[in-house]
Amino acid sequence: MYLKYLLLSSNQNIEPSFESDYLEYTEETEGEFIVIKYKDLENNEASLRVSNNEAQIIFNGNKMDLALKRKVSNTFYFGEIKITFDCFLTSIVVKNKIIELNYDLLQNDTIIVSNIARFEFYKEKGGQLK
Fold first, then answer.
1. What is the mean pLDDT of the segment spanning 30-40?
2. Which architecture characterizes domain 2-122 according to CATH?
């Protein structure tokens, strides 16, 4: 089974910022969480943990924690650069073929960007959504 990860960002309009290739994944549950594990294009471990009220995305050596309708401070590392944002999760959508996390990145209580992290699940590469 495969997934595609899309990051859609909006300042004025929603624009695709990133779309992965088809990536193999595994799925399991841990209590109330659905856990999706995969390797990114650079073969780094990546994962998504999601419940009705919380989510965590691990990607490119970074971890982003999100809680529904609450600000959570997250620090991201890009090489030598370290940036801290507050993240505010506005909604979680879990369907059998799609998981979407809608969240805002804030600095000093000002929205810098609104993002949608979308995970699409496929039975095969190039196929229909699972």
1. 96
2. Beta Barrel (2.40)
